[in-house]
Amino acid sequence: MLVVVTGQIGAGKTTVCQQVIDIARDNRCTCGGVITRKTGDGSILVVDVRSGNSMPLASLRAIYRGPQTGKYWFNPMGIEFGMEAIRRGAGSSILVVDEVGHLELEGEGFASAPEILRRRRVRDSIVVIRSELVEAFLPLLSNAALIFTTTPDNRDSLPEQIAALLLEVPARR
Q: DSSP of the chain, one letter per residue?
């Protein structure tokens, strides 16, 4: 099953993913892939879901020689670290890819993640895509995705709904 978690910037998409990971692990499922976290200075870290290790992915300052999109300059080593975590995570019960966006549509960043998801080497996966990019990514994923839009009103209940589908366990009420 492919789950797309979408929503606007700051809606809590990563928080939803982390909580689904926590629920899955409580149910003895393995999880792999990446989540991204903003730091206090606005930079972005990429976190390997399996190991918990992280590496700088992007900065608001022009300190990396990788691709640039919007206000961020990307760290080539952070991109490779993330792609390696995604490749390793493909053997997990649940593969998480947080997030794909403009870079990937341009063939950079985690651009090969959709191919990994298409190959369906993993039973279930969650991919985070900003609302305005969902239509562009769905053809690349070539799967019947279940789409969940994260909002401030549902971000607390959404993780259990998604976990209930992925793990086939009833959501708590």
A: -EEEEEESTTSSHHHHHHHHHHHHHHTT--EEEEEEEE-TTS-EEEEETTT--EEEEEESSS---S-EETTEEE-HHHHHHHHHHHHHHTTSSEEEEEEE-HHHHTT-SSTTHHHHHHTT-SSEEEEEEEGGGHHHHHHHHTS-EEEEE--TTTTTTHHHHHHHHHHT-PPP-
Alpha carbon 96 to chain centroid distance? 5
For the chain, give every domain's residue range: 2-35+85-167
Q: Which two tokens stand for residue 2?
A: 């492919």
**Could you tell me if 149 and 132 are in contact, meaning their C-beta atoms sit under 8 angstroms apart?**
no
- Do the Cβ atoms of 32 and 50 come closer than 8 Å? yes
What's the CA gap between 106 and 90, in Å, rounded?
23
pLDDT of 7 reads 95
The per-residue pLDDT for range 34-75, each reduced to its tens digit, is 999 999 999 999 999 999 999 999 999 999 999 999 899 999
Q: How far is Cα 77 from Cα 62, in angstroms, rounded to an integer?
A: 15
Which CATH superfamily includes the segment(s) 2-35+85-167? P-loop containing nucleotide triphosphate hydrolases (3.40.50.300)
Q: What is the pLDDT of residues 94-124, one digit of tens each?
A: 999 998 999 999 999 999 998 888 876 667 9
